[in-house]
Amino acid sequence: MKTIHITEKDLHPIPFRSVIDCIGTGHLGLALHKEYVDQLRKVQDQCHFHFIRGHGLFSDDIGIYQRVPTDSGEETRYNFTYLDRIMDTYRELGLRPFLELGFMPSKLASGNQTIFYWKANVTPPADEQEWVLLVENTLRHMAERYGSSEVAQWPVEIWNEPNLAGFWENADLQKYLRLYEITSQAVKRAVPGIRVGGPAVCGGDSCLPWIDAFLDWCEQHDLPVDFLTRHVYMADTPIHKGRYEYHSMCMAETSMKELADTRALLERHPCFASLPIYVTEFNTSYNPFCPIHDTVQNAAIMSSFLALAGDYADSCSYWTFGDVFEELGIPSTPFHGGFGLMANGQIPKPTLWAFHYFSELQGECIYRDKHLILMKKEDGYEGILWQICSDAADELEVCLTLPMSGRSFLVCEQLDANHGNPLSVWLDMGQCPNPTPAQVQLLQASAQPYIQTIVPEEKDGLVQFVLHAFDNTVLHFALHSAPAHRDDGYDETWYR
């Protein structure tokens, strides 16, 4: 067992920036599903994200780009019916879209290469002017519907992971740079003041040459760049078993080095040195059938990431909020290793609570290490403790001695193998692919964190208590001032 003692001498102000600002989603057409909207509403109730980013704005299932027959041949028309429904839903839930411009409408595509079960076309436009008009008319429509001042606050990212051949034909850098050139200018013409950026690359340090070339191109051609985007996943080389993928995981410190290297690269381009860095996708694994996503271990790893990422990035978007998701096909079981914070059936996963805890953190950060973050608040303290391990013997004991006078009240919410872990209950059920309503209710109930309260002893203006974490634990704690209010005749010892 490892023991950490934290006393008054260890407490001092530490810069901490929350990066919980944006959340990822499966392709935008899924927002037309009731289950999708229900999941998003529940996640938003817990985490209060400001933006939402997903693929497929221009894909065929949204149907914006149309070529219709006329007496003289064919002409372009735009159909915004589904787009309006989707954006209305996001706005009703308090979310602004983080617009990812892609993929290519099949009738505008230069080739037939697609990706995913839903066949997103990943080739350049056959007609650059038609693409530019599609971008401009779509943004102008949204500005007319929601107001130019509102839409100007919606960030625009051009394409997704163009450095990967699966997402951009041949991973052709020069063709992407040309796409960025014509598209970024179209975006600025359509909605003055709107922010635009890229290149949305993925792949650890291997994507840095792409970022470098992107910045060179934008500088040479005087192109608008208001932010830089990249993705961060923590998975090592995969092992395949059936349709599932298993990885060992890098720790958060490795991801922080990737972000630090990205910041250092920006600083080597003086005109872009102060650009914000938006991580528009991050998670442990990049595969939607990787069982780690459903586990408490995932929650512990994400806690470590969230505690550190604000040192290097301005915003990080977890991929994704829910398991209504179809990249590799329609999920057939509630627990299948999907990316989401919420399993199908409205079942919270442990990582949802990690995001909830970090989204609610308030006050001044006064202590932070690889296991713990502690905030000083007006009426007490709040913190999150996590332990990432595969051996139950790796117990972590944290002894805190904090300045606080008078009676106080400590509330602890804990996730571990036996608490807030619906995956374990589903496995005990026999991995039923389609749970009954009663089974779903049980899974939902088992997803709630374990809550424990104590009144710690106060002596000489100090309060002392001990926290324990083991076997992939996430623990949120809050210490509040709690003066006693006595009611004549009430004997609290009677039932104890």
What general form does the structure show?
A: globular
Number of helices: 11
Strand content range: 25-35%
Number of E strands: 27
Biggest sheet record: 9 strands, parallel
User: Class by helix and strand content?
Assistant: alpha/beta
The rounded distance between the terminal residues' Cα atoms is: 32 Å
Overall pLDDT level: 94
Gyration radius, rounded: 25 Å
- Strand order within the widest beta sheet: 6-3-2-16-15-12-11-10-7
Helix content: 25-40%
Catalogue the unreliable spans. Answer: none
Can you offer a commentary on this structure?
This protein has 496 residues and is of the alpha/beta class. Helices cover 28% and strands 27% of the residues. The chain has 11 helices and 27 strands. It has helices at 34-47, 81-92, 128-146, 148-151, 173-190, 208-220, 252-267, 296-308, 350-360, 422-429, 437-446; strands at 2-6, 20-25, 51-54, 65-70, 73-78, 96-97, 99-101, 114-115, 120-121, 156-158, 196-201, 227-233, 239-241, 244-246, 277-283, 315-318, 342-343, 347-348, 364-368, 372-377, 380-387, 396-403, 408-415, 450-454, 458-459, 462-469, 473-481. The strands form 7 sheets. The chain has a 9-stranded parallel β-sheet, with helices on one face. A 6-stranded antiparallel β-sheet has the order 19-20-21-27-23-24, with helices on one face. It has a 4-stranded mixed β-sheet with strand order 1-22-26-25, with no helix packed on it. α10 packs antiparallel against α11 (437-446). The longest helix is centred in the first third of the chain and has 19 residues, at 128-146. The protein is globular.
